[in-house]
Amino acid sequence: MSKDGSESAVSWSPKLVRPLRSRAVFLLAFTAFFLVSAGWALALPANGTNDEDEHIIRAYGAASGQLYSAPAAAARGGGAWYDVPRSLLPVNADCTYRWELPASCLQRPPDDPSRTEVGTAAGRYNPLYYVPVGLPMVISPNMAGIILGRLISAGMVAGLLAASATIAVRRRSPLLLAAVLVAATPNVLNLAGSINPSGLELAAGVLTWTALLTLVRARAGELGDRWTSQLLLAAGIGAATLVSIRTLGPLLLGLTVLACMAAARPGRTRELRQRRDFRLVGIAVSVAGLFGVGWTLFSGVLDNPPAEPTPRHLSFGEKLSYVVGDRLTQWVAQVVGRFSYGEVQAPNGMLVAWYALALLIIVPTLLFATWRQACVILGVAAVSVALLVGFEVLYYQQIGWAQQSRYILPFGVGALLFAGSLRRWEHRFGEVATRRFVLLCGSVAALMHLWALAVVMTRFQVGQREKALGALHGTWLPAVGPQLPLLTAALGGLLLVALVLLTRSPRPGSAAAFTVGLDALVPGRRQPETVSTAGNPVKVDQREE
Fold first, then answer.
1. What is the pLDDT of residue 78?
2. For residues 309-326, b (16+ Cβ closer than 10 Å) or e, as one string?
3. Rounded to the nearest 10 degrees, what angle do helices 198-216 and 143-170 cross at?
4. I want to staple 103 with a disulfide (CB 3.0 to 4.6 A). Which of 45, 179, 335, 348 is the partner?
5. Closest Cα partner for 160 from 199, 204, 213?
């Protein structure tokens, strides 16, 4: 360890972080995350995730030009009305979760493209997410359009997660890549492969944290000018997405920025503020934030109708006791895998395995971290829990027990990502242990994604009471058959493992000829740039930043 407390790094070979290879890493990561999410998109029936039918109506309305509809008591005492085709959704889209039946209970929607006025509880939500995912439904207002909309949603989420993984590789931080893989839980990719803005919000949180942490934790001279600009752009994309598409976005982004400032190296935030591109990104994010806040105030989305039936009166102590005794365990399960409308939970073994990976990143880092670093990690976790408890107690009388951990996860995931961004773990355990652990994370993630998909497919094809996996048969089957979703998710999982394997340090000279041969194809090669480190000029190769 150096005198200033910085950690020596276990890193990938510089040959793996040149611009061309970074593009290859992005494409590989994008394909992996997209295929896993596409497995969910192909496998689920209409309304196969929480409130998807509400979001489908909102998506069609936004994409067909109905960006805004006056607040009304349209659904659950709130929401708004939209004109949608009768052919878009089954007549009884809620039969699967209401009676916990297989999806064969769904009545086929009429083959009637004429519009009818339908209420949705999501009717006042910001239209930014809904326009792109709703376009296929305008063209094909049936299950095919819904699946295509899901795939567009999966693509947007995969793009943000792939950018996060690419940053980890270019930063030469294997443990940060492991943290990104663990952060992309089965629940996140399930939401990504459905019509629901929560998946995009979660991915935006991951990208914002990853880019900001890389910026504020960089040592002097570690990042070149071009790489810093790219990181600022990535942080801006994540932040603008986070701050605009959901009501809590501005609060979550503000907390994320405060946490990253607390984690920053001395003087680093001042250096960034002096950059012109930092100010430009800040202006763009501010505009997105103003639009998000303006829409929230204008649309009336905060006007929550009373819950029906009215929840019985509870004292503050009774509310807190129920939250600690029951709601906390539900929130823990929701982070990894609580699917459909909450009636399908991932097996306990999956929950234990996933949290074990997360704790194996966080706990050793806490043991080896400075007090300030440990306070940031524990503070992010504590504030996340406090927000959920506070919202649950505050809004109980209006909407009942309705808070879910995904609401604050875009901020809460920072505890895992910050732990992964520190090099304490890598320094103490060494290169071999780090490589093996990252490979373990990729392999376990691949298996768990496929297992979770099979569990949920069994629930919709056979029924909620089926204990054994039955994802290849049932009274209801996906339109493309049960094999294709499973194979798609399995291929995505294999590519996640390949992502880890292909970004490990190669043998000396193993890729030299291949890399040199492709260098000529990369446009815009620059001469090594001279930067100053502690007053001494140092040459930094732009290709290796």
1. 87
2. eeeeeeeeeebeebbeee
3. 10
4. 45
5. 204
Contact yes or no for 474/102 (Cβ under 8 A): yes
Q: Provide the phi-psi class of 164: left if phi over 0, else alpha when psi is between -120 and 50, else beta.
A: alpha
Q: Is the peptide bond before 528 cis (omega within 30 degrees of 0)?
A: no
Instruction: Say what the pLDDT of residue 537 is.
Output: 42
Residue appearing with tokens 């083959």: 111
- Contact between 452 and 337 under an 8 Å Cβ cutoff? The reply is yes
Angle between helices 198-216 and 249-263 (to 10 degrees): 20
- Which two tokens mark 480? 């493309």
**pLDDT for position 11:** 52
- At 544, the amino acid letter reads E
For residue 15, which of 25, 5, 6 has the smallest C-alpha distance? 25
**Nearest C-alpha neighbor of 544 from the set 8, 105, 17:** 17
C-alpha neighbours within 13 Å on the C-beta side of residue 104: 12
CA 483 to chain centroid = 26
CB distance 463 to 431 below 8 Å: no
C-alpha radius of gyration, the chain, whole number:
24
In the predicted model, what is the mean pLDDT of the chain? 86
Cβ(17)–Cβ(85) under 8 Å?
no
Other CB atoms within a 10 A radius of the CB of residue 142 amount to 17
Spell out a b/e string for 102-111, using b for 16 or more CB atoms within 10 Å of the CB, else e: bbbbbeebee
Under a CB-based contact definition with an 8 Å cutoff, are residues 43 and 478 in contact? Answer: yes
Q: Which pTM was predicted?
A: 0.88
pLDDT, tens digit, for every residue of 427-451? 888 888 888 999 999 999 999 999 9
Q: Which helix (H) or strand (E) holds 508?
A: none
Tell me the per-residue pLDDT of 51-83, one tens digit each, with 9 for 90 and over: 999 999 999 999 999 999 998 888 888 899 999
297 burial type by CB count under 10 A (0-12 exposed, 13-18 middle, 19+ buried): exposed
* Residue 305 confidence class, pLDDT cut points 50, 70, 90: confident
**Paired strand residues for 82:** 118
The encoded tokens of residue 99 equal: 């009676």
Burial tier of 375 (Cβ tally within 10 Å: 0-12, 13-18, 19+): middle
Q: Which range (10-19, 212-221, 461-470, 504-513) has the least confidence?
A: 504-513
* Residue 151 neighbours by CB under 8 Å, 6+ apart: 38, 41, 193
Tracing tokens 């239209």 back to the chain, one arrives at: 127
The encoded tokens of residue 88 equal 């878009």
Cα gap 213→418, rounded to integer Å: 7
- The one-letter code for the residue type at 37 is S
Which positions ≥6 away from 23 have C-beta within 8 Å? none
Give tens-digit pLDDT for 107-132: 999 999 999 999 999 999 999 999 99
Nearest of 150, 144, 137 to residue 191 by alpha carbon: 150
Cα(464)–Cα(456) distance, rounded to whole angstroms?
A: 9
